[in-house]
Structures are given as C-alpha cells and as structure tokens.
Specification:
Rhomboid-like_sf, Rhomboid-like fold, membrane, transmembrane helix, about 0% strand, Peptidase_S54_rhomboid_dom, 12 helices, Peptidase, S54 family
Length: about 260
C-alpha cells in the first residue's frame, strides 16, 4: 500500500470534508487504541483517554483543560455515536461546504464546536447541578448543526435539490428537516447538556449565516468569494494543489469569454 499516494490523494488534494472525516476517524482510532494499551499496562483500572479531551461544565475543569472547548468534538460516546456523525458529515456537509466556501465552512464548524461548549457551560452555571448534571460532552453534532444552519440561512432552498451521496437519489426537503430535528434531539432525555450544546451550535450557525447573507450584496457574491479564495490558493501554491472538487468549482465560477 502506497501511503504517500493515499496521503496526497485523500488529504493533500482532498476536500475540507474529506479532511474532517480523516481527522475524526484517526482521532477516534488513536483514542481507542491508546486507551486499550494503557489498560493492558495497568489492568487494575479501565483507561478512557477520551475523557481527557471531553468537555465538562465546571469552571475548575474548564480552566485546567481549556483545550476541551474544541477537543471534545474528537471523542465519541461509542461506535454508533461516531459512525452516525461521520455519516452526517459525509452525506450533508459537502453541499454545505460548497455553498459556504472552504474558509467560512471551517470557521463555522470550529465556531459551532466552541459555541456548543459555551452554551453548555452557561446553562450549567445558571441552572445548577440539580437541573443539568455535569456529564462529559463528546461528539461533533454541534458543529454539524452549525454548518447546516449557516448554509440554510444563506440559501433556504438548499435542501430542495439535495441528493443522497450514498445512492444519488433526490431527497425531498421535508424528510431532511425532520431528520435534522431528530439529530438536534439525539442527545437523549437525560442529557440536557447535550441538548444545550446542540442549541449553541445551531444558534451560532444561524448567526453566521445571517452575517454571511448580509455581507453578500448579491447572490453571486458567495460564489465570487469562493472563486477568489481558490485563486488565492492557486497563486500561493499551484493549480495542482487544488483538489478535483476545488478545480471543478474554480472552472465553473470563472468568467466566460463572450467572444
């Protein structure tokens, strides 16, 4: 197996969504493998290194582990939690990334992670332990909801022409809205902190989407900013540094010669 070729094809030339999938998958495998090795070395306790990356709403833990404001998106509660989020990233986010542009997509994704943690922290501090138990916060659901909300605020008809990447079949918008609502409620009845994190990511995405829409003076300006970003990347590196998807977007958005 040519690892250099795989690295170049899927990471160096891959889209931002492909890089997110690789990052989350590698992090999930490393956390699980490291926890298993540590448990073998010291079998008197079960190690779960994902808890060191998880977010907790107590101030002392936030100050002691400030990186958890972002790193909690890497560990997941179990395999089904991880697999579900990866399916959402693979199926939904390429359309959102195309609509937002790479830079806005990345800022909205990371901002949704931080906003989810901060909303959980604020809710816990206001309502207390009796209402919100200080459970660990894990997973990338807040970031996914943030990106989807931002893209919908820019283009409210984005789901009207949505096709499922697994089969290529067109999906009606109403089932997609219902599905996203179920994702919002997926934290469970006993995990109010998870619901608050989802709400924080959703509100952050809505705010970003409104800002992006206000910033755009005309609908085509979204594509213009994406084109300028790709041209800047080409000038900085070269045309070969663009992924196949980015090349297609660049050629599509280039002004056509009228002669």
């Amino acid at each position: 197996m040519n690892w250099l070729k795989l690295y170049k094809e899927y990471w160096q030339e891959g889209s931002i969504v492909m890089r997110l999938l690789i990052l989350h998958t590698v992090a999930y495998l490393l956390i699980g493998l490291t926890s298993w090795v540590c448990t073998l070395i010291t079998p008197l306790r079960w190690w779960d290194l994902g808890l060191s990356l998880s977010f907790y709403p107590e101030w002392d833990k936030v100050l002691y582990h400030p990186w958890s404001l972002v790193t909690y998106a890497l560990p997941h509660l179990n395999f089904f939690h991880f697999f579900g989020n990866m399916c959402l990233i693979y199926a939904l986010l390429p359309v959102m990334a195309y609509r937002l542009g790479t830079r806005r997509f990345l800022w909205t994704y990371i901002g949704g992670i931080v906003a989810g943690a901060m909303t959980y922290l604020l809710g816990y501090q206001l309502l207390g332990t009796q209402t919100i138990p200080p459970l660990s916060l894990q997973g990338a659901s807040a970031a996914i909801l943030s990106v989807c909300a931002a893209a919908v605020m820019i283009d409210r008809k984005i789901f009207s022409s949505f096709t499922l990447r697994f089969t290529g079949n067109r999906v009606p918008p109403i089932p997609l809205w219902v599905f996203l609502f179920l994702v919002f409620l997926s934290a469970g009845r006993g995990n109010l902190g998870g619901h608050l994190a989802h709400l924080g990511g959703l509100l952050f995405g809505i705010t970003c989407g409104l800002y992006y829409r206000k910033q755009a003076k005309r609908p085509a300006s979204i594509f213009t900013s994406d084109r300028e970003e790709l041209l800047r990347k080409t000038r900085h590196s070269s045309f070969s540094s663009l992924s196949p998807e980015e090349r297609r977007r660049l050629m599509k958005n280039l002004p056509k010669d009228k002669n």
